[in-house]
Amino acid sequence: xxxRKKKNGQQRMELCADLLITxxxxxxxxxxxxxPVYLEIGCGKGTFILEMAKRHEDCFxxxxxxxxxxALLAAEKLKAAKVDNVRLIVSSVEKLTxxxxxxxxxxIYLNFSDPWPKSRHAKRRLTHRDYLTLYKKWLSxxxxxxxxxxxxxLFDFSLEEFQANGFVLQDITYDLHNSVWETENIHTxxxxxxxxxxxxxxxxxxxxx
Length: 209
Prior knowledge:
- With 209 residues, the chain is of the alpha/beta class.
- The chain contains 7 helices and 7 strands.
- It has helices spanning 9-14, 24-31, 47-55, 68-81, 129-138, 152-164, 189-196, and strands spanning 37-41, 60-65, 86-90, 105-111, 139-149, 167-173, 202-208.
- A 7-stranded mixed beta sheet has the order 3-2-1-4-5-7-6, with helices on both faces.
- Helix 4 (68-81) links the parallel strand 2 and strand 3.
């Protein structure tokens, strides 16, 4: 679904400038603060990353969102909550290869990524092996990817990609909301919307060997 352009978007984003990372060196400085660093790719309106930041004040969180008008909503939400352990990058993940240091990320969160359902678009899926190769460079030796989606074909594709690229799978569920892992689950707006429509939520933890 196309996001409607926000009125006065650039001016509103400037008011959130203290939350933004706009150049690689600033991100490297964050990684040197001594806190474990966690990354969400495709943070949407920021619900998940905000709740994570509140629950884990001793950790640092980086949220990436490529769509400016969506990132604006996340930035304003984080600004209003006055959290100081989150930073936001407005960019596609492909452009961050020179930003994120190797081995610096503990967990990568992929929540309800675009499924790109057509076969010819498979390389655009954020769990395609080309992306997994990139994530493996960023993850610490004990790092992991936590992936959630309501799209079963994407989930099945992702399980195969993870395994084919050296990840060990654990905590697999095809119905997260009725699983033992639901107590710790943070719902996004998208998640609640599609759950109410009858979609079950799939989730997996993919760990480096």
